[in-house]
Write a structure and sequence with these properties.
Layout: E1 6-11, E2 14-19, H1 30-45, E3 51-55, E4 60-62, H2 75-80, H3 85-91, E5 97-101, E6 104-106, H4 108-115, E7 118-122, E8 126-128, H5 142-150, H6 152-161, E9 164-166, H7 167-173, E10 178-180, H8 185-194, H9 201-213, H10 219-232, H11 237-247
Parallel strand pairs: 2-3, 3-5, 4-6, 5-7, 6-8, 7-10
Antiparallel strand pairs: 1-2, 8-9
Helix pairs in contact: 1-3, 5-6, 9-10
Length: about 260
């Protein structure tokens, strides 16, 4: 399908989804998020795609939700027009997701970046949850995900004050995986993603799933889940190939089966 709010393209085995609402600093409207969720699911179904990148432009990854959609809304209207279904669809993506962030990643933009599995950020990137400044609070996971990333005291400070987190602080806090020059931030994100392309796809996806489950389960249940996934991988052709290649001292050829 043709999209109105995003651009979609491929680079080798990497699927790239680029937000395309520059006049609103890529504000995350409901329609944009519908298109993002649809594009993510199409890349999931594409067997040639191993990694998915979400990005904006140099000035903004996404500067938050589209507040025009919130204006004068009642609680019931917000409830009936449930806007987080698309976010849940993105979160459930089983292939690795990388956020390529430059400029502003605020409010919903920061929350969407945190839904991703890794973040590569330009040296001009700025993160934050400023919803408190308009009488609101994070609603797409900010209070939960940021707290798990940087612990309660720091999350309290940033969410209750609404102040921004510069990219170097974000790196020190463990929010960002890598900082790259703004001028080549997407190119460098693609380079970062390439390190995963020669890994066995099923192992890659299941390892991601097990890491995500560590946030959902207590330690004992998480260990049990991990072991079941570990045993499952012995049913795959790629595991047989990987072990054989190691013992035979050759490069493995993974087929995703």
């Amino acid at each position: 399908m043709s999209y109105q709010n995003i651009l979609v393209f491929k680079e080798d085995k990497i699927g790239i989804i680029k937000f395309n609402r520059p006049k609103s600093l890529n504000a995350l409207s409901k329609e944009l998020m519908k298109e993002v969720a649809d594009a993510v699911e199409k890349f999931e179904q594409d067997k040639d795609i191993r990694i998915i990148i979400l990005t904006g432009n140099e000035r903004a990854f996404a500067a938050g939700a589209d507040l025009l959609e919130f204006n004068k809304k009642t609680p019931n209207e917000m409830f009936e027009n449930y806007r987080f279904l698309e976010w849940e669809r993105v979160y459930k993506c089983y292939k690795p997701l990388i956020a390529s962030v430059s400029g502003y990643a605020l409010g919903g933009g920061f929350e969407l970046a945190m839904i991703c599995d890794m973040i590569v950020a330009s040296d001009s990137a700025v993160f934050g949850q400023p919803e408190i400044n308009v009488g609101l609070m994070p609603g797409a996971g900010g209070t939960q995900r940021l707290t798990k990333l940087i612990q309660k005291q720091r999350a309290m400070e940033y969410i209750l004050s609404g102040k921004y987190i510069d990219v170097w602080t974000a790196y020190k806090l463990g929010i960002v995986n890598k900082i790259v020059p703004t001028e080549i931030y997407l190119e460098m994100t693609i380079k970062f993603a390439r390190q995963f392309l020669d890994k066995p796809p099923i192992s890659l996806n299941i390892a991601k799933d097990s890491i995500k489950m560590s946030y959902e389960l207590n330690l004992q249940d998480g260990l049990e889940y991990e072991r079941k996934m570990f045993y499952y991988l012995f049913s795959t052709k790629d595991a047989l190939e990987g072990i054989s290649a190691f013992l035979e001292k050759r490069t493995p050829k993974y087929i995703g089966e």
